[in-house]
Every structure is written in structure tokens, then in C-alpha cells.
Input
Amino acid sequence: MRRETGHVECFCTVGSVTLTMRAQNVLQAASIRSQVVSADAAHAAKGCAYALSYSCSQEPLVRRVLENAGIHVRSFYKGES
Amino acid sequence: MIYFDNAATSFPKPMAVTEEQAACMRKYCGNAGRGSHALAMAAAEKIFECRSLAADFFGATGAEKVVFTMNTTMALNIAIKGLLKRGDHVLISDMEHNAVWRPIEALARGGVITYDIFSTFAAEKDVSEEVICREIRARLKPNTTMLVCAHASNICSAVLPLRAIGRICAQMGILFVVDGAQSAGHVPIHMQEMGISALCVPGHKGLWGPQGSGMLILGDGVLPDPLFQGGSGYQSLESAMPSDLPERLEAGTLPTPAIAGLCEGIREVSRIGVEKIGRREKELSRALCEGIRTLPNVTVYTPHLLGSVLLFNVDGLPANQTGALLDKMGFCVRAGYHCASLAHRTIRTPVGGAVRVSPSYYNTFSEIDRLAIAVREIAIRQ
Output
């Protein structure tokens, strides 16, 4: 049986669950849907971290909105959800 | 039983508070910030909701500035010990609870800091805020780095002019730490407008949340050193606590059910309105004062400062005995020194302290009348 591959999404690693939720709120205010997830180990730097997953088509807007809100993003990356 | 000890902890809680606590325990009490499974995230969302509500309620700049603690005492210890450095000088008021005085005194005894006490003139009538401000300015030293004070006293409704004090602190570049234990939910507080660097509040008094909940809310640029080290839910490979708020100051598992309940408490207080709540409590205290102060052997302390708290004694009867008699008659009040020896010294209560009555928004005038009758009975028997 063929295993279905996951959907490719974009992620940004924020850090704590609180800051990640704040970032999610900021994106929501800009009508960008996102979900709080555990960041991939490779992108979690000092151990575990939280990230937001979102549609890659919205990446430029995500970067702009978070930067304008003063939210520091540790890394942006692509992966399977 | 009629409960009049809301300055110790509010009772009863609104139904929404207890229901949300129970719902949390039944439906979504995962460990927030530990993993990203459905239950952990559900708990994290409720906690974030409470942070956001609290930040709005107190005029803070963001949810991440709200640090959950067990109570005001813990919040004050984190603020005081996390912000002061060796050689600092601190000002505190003469009405402070032991939650302020003891950590300050401990640091002073250890040779870390020095401190002075400024007078609030709480025992005197018609003292303007200018007099208090002049008193504060007179006690400032070149190495003064912090002023800590209670917004409202826990024994007599004395309320300090936070805006004016905040202006002094801002002008002098001093940290302004506020003990909001008796004002949160009773008197409006806006951190940004008042220039507050760190606000320490309980969840379980005027915000109608459960015991085990409290908050340290920080101003911009204020970053105490952590008092506790432990798990923070992220950056697990690091040996130090993270630098970001609020997790920097929240080691270990948070009391999620308590925070869930607190969320609803803040919501309910917001719905009714802090000013409306404070007004009602003042009216209740005033009614009690009118009912007992004309008795020849009853002393009501600072009757010119009536608010959420009334302090009295039946002359010649130790306060604890008055409290015990009232307890037998079905009234919950607190007698003694109320963990506030500085304040009792300022108000000049006798040995044994006094009896404190602290009604809530939910008490009635009929209950106040019954208490007044009980006090009169005790006074007459003396």
C-alpha cells in the first residue's frame, strides 16, 4: 500500500509557547491562518521550541507582519505537516 | 455564616470561576508549554487567554509581560530579589505588608541593600498627595533604585497616589514596584499611565480567582533575574532559564486549573466594572462604620479613609477575643496584626492589633446590619 506523503508547509520557529501564540494572534489579525506546532529539532536551536506552520504562499506576508510587530523569529523553514 | 474576610481571600467565587476550574480538570488540563499535543495546546490556549485578559485589564503592553505566580508574595519576592543589586537603596512605605517588608529586611540584614521607610500619614486626616510626594523626595538617595509600596493597605483602605509616585520614580529613573494585593479589582490600575515597573497582584482576592493564582506583571524593559530555575518547556538543552518573558520567571508546571478559574474571575470583574465594585464596597464599609462608631467603647481606625476595609476594636477586649465572639455569632472576620506590623504601628492599634472587616461586592446591607448589631452586643457586654 502506497503511503501518502505529507503536505508541504512553511514554518517559523519563535521559541516559547507564549511568544508563539502571540505571533499567531498577530498573524490572525492580518488574516493569516497558522497553527502552533513543535519546531523541528534541527530548527529548535537550544533544544525544544515552538513554531508556527502556515501556507508557504503567505511567507512574504508572514515575515513582514511579524517583523513589524517586533516578533523575533529564530528560523524560517519548509517541511511536511 | 457571613463572610467578611475578603481582604484575606474572596469568598464565594462567581459560579463561572468554579465551573471553569472544573471544566479544565475534566476536559483540557494538559501541561501547557510541554509538547504540542491537543491537550497541552488546549491548556496553553487558556493560559494565554488569561495572560491577554490580565494585560488588558492592568494596562500592560502585552500578554508576555504577565508572569503567573502562586500569590502576591511570590510575585513581590521575584520582583524585589530579581531586580535589586548589591549597594542599592530602596524606599518602602510605612503601611507595607510583610510580603514587602520581610524580603526587603532580609536583603538589608544580608548587607545587600539599604532601605528607608517613607510616611504615608495614613493615620492623619486631609493629607494631600503633595505632602506624601514631598516625603518621598526627601528620602531619596543617590543610590535609590527602587520604590516599593502597597497601592491600598490591607488594614485600613489607605490608598496611595500611584500616578504621582510613578511620576517621581520616572523622573528619578527608579523602579516602581507596586503591591496591588488589596487594590486589584477594587481600584483601577493602569500600569503604563501610572509608570509602574512591576505590578504584583493575587488572583484570589479582588479578581475572584482561586487560591494558588497570582501575577507579576512587568513594564517594558523590566527583566528580573529568575528566582527559580527548572523546566521552562523549551530550550531544554540550555543550563540557564530562557531570556524571554514570561517563561524566564515561570519554572515548572503552571497551576492550569487555577489560571483557568482566574481567567473567568477577571472577566467577571471586568463585566461588572472595577469602579462599581469599589463604590459598593465603600458603601458597605461606610454603613458598618455608621452602625458602630457611635458606640462609646468602639474605636474605628482611620474612618476618614473608608474603602474596602474597615478596622476596629471593642475597647478593653483583645482583638482576637472580639474576632472569636464574632465567629461564634456566625461572622468571618480577621483579628490580629494581619501580617502587617508596620501598618499597625502607623495606625497605632493597641497590643493584639484589631479586627478587620472586608466586605465584598456580593455582601448585602442586611448582612452589614447584622454585623453591626453583633458588634454592639459585644460592646454592651464589655
Q: What stands out?
A: Chain B has a mean pLDDT of 97. The longest helix of chain B spans residues 38-57. The two ends of chain B are 24 Å apart (CA to CA). Chain B is about 40% helix and 15% strand.
